[in-house]
Specification:
Blueprint (H helix, E strand, L loop, with lengths): L5 H11 L6 H8 L4 H10 L1 H15 L5 H15 L7 H11 L6 H4 L4 H16 L1 H12 L2 H16 L4 H25 L4 H27 L2 H7 L9 H5 L1
Helix pairs in contact: 1-12, 2-10, 3-6, 4-5, 4-8, 4-9, 6-11, 8-9, 8-12, 9-11, 9-12, 10-11
Bound molecules: fe (ii) ion (FE2).
Length: 243
């Protein structure tokens, strides 16, 4: 019998697919991505970012307790923006704009299969049940603080992007998702044995979907072609493109 808390079991599943181990984020942390690579990532991630408030709303709608409902409602209110703050999707557009992506570019972008698949996986899980929704939310939010910190460090160091507006999406999530994921872990640990299997399956499927999305974005980068030996063309250093 597994004596670990369910949230700890989920954390182990997530660790196996942790996005900081992905070559795309590793290239980001080394400054090996071009600004064009980052722009493509910002655009292709949009369906997921834009739908995130809906994912939270779907789980909120199935919350079995008042405590879970009020916690998820607070999360949702942050996603859509309080009276004093922009919504998180708008903060994402601020990040993209800092990279040189026009805000209306999102409306003209053709989203690739991996981008649409990621949104579909999250939607499916969050619709299916409260347990699956929590497994999915945990797969994402428990990883975000560490990733956000690394992204900010990489953007400042290698891409000379230091202004608050450009970095705000990551800075907000660096702290907010520490709190949210701790809260989600508490609800996960109250799930029944039957629900535990659902939460684990959704957690793994969602962690894998996030990884596959990065596979697709990484495949288009010069850094990936250099690593695979398919192409000897070097990416122009980011600072050359920015200046
Ligand atoms: Fe968010």
């Amino acid at each position: 019998m597994n004596t670990q808390k369910l949230s700890q079991q989920l954390a182990q599943i997530i660790e196996q697919h942790h996005l900081l181990k992905h070559p795309f984020y590793q290239a980001w942390m080394r400054g090996d991505l071009t600004v064009g690579d980052l722009q493509d990532y910002a655009l292709q991630y949009w369906p997921h970012v834009a739908a995130f408030p809906q994912f939270v709303a779907l789980i909120y709608g199935q919350a079995p307790s008042e405590a879970a409902a009020s916690g998820l409602l607070r999360n949702l209110q942050e996603e859509v923006g309080s009276a004093t703050q922009s919504s998180h999707p708008e903060l994402w557009k601020d990040f993209a704009e800092g990279l040189g992506v026009a805000r209306d570019e999102f409306d003209r972008t053709e989203f690739r299969t991996a981008s649409k698949d990621l949104k579909s996986q999250f939607t499916k899980s969050c619709l299916a049940s409260f347990a699956k929704g929590l497994g999915t939310l945990y797969a994402y939010e428990s990883q975000v603080p560490a990733i956000a910190d690394q992204k900010v460090a990489g953007l400042e160091k290698f891409y000379d992007l230091k202004d608050e507006k450009t970095l705000s999406f990551f800075k907000v999530h660096s702290t907010a998702d520490q709190f949210h994921s701790a809260e989600v872990a508490g609800w996960i640990d109250q799930l029944s044995d039957g629900e535990a299997a659902e939460a684990k399956a959704a957690c793994e499927d969602s962690a894998k979907a996030l990884w596959k999305f990065l596979d697709d974005v990484y495949a288009g980068t010069a850094a990936s072609k250099m690593n695979s030996g398919m192409n000897s063309t070097c990416a122009a250093p980011a600072e050359m493109i920015l200046n």
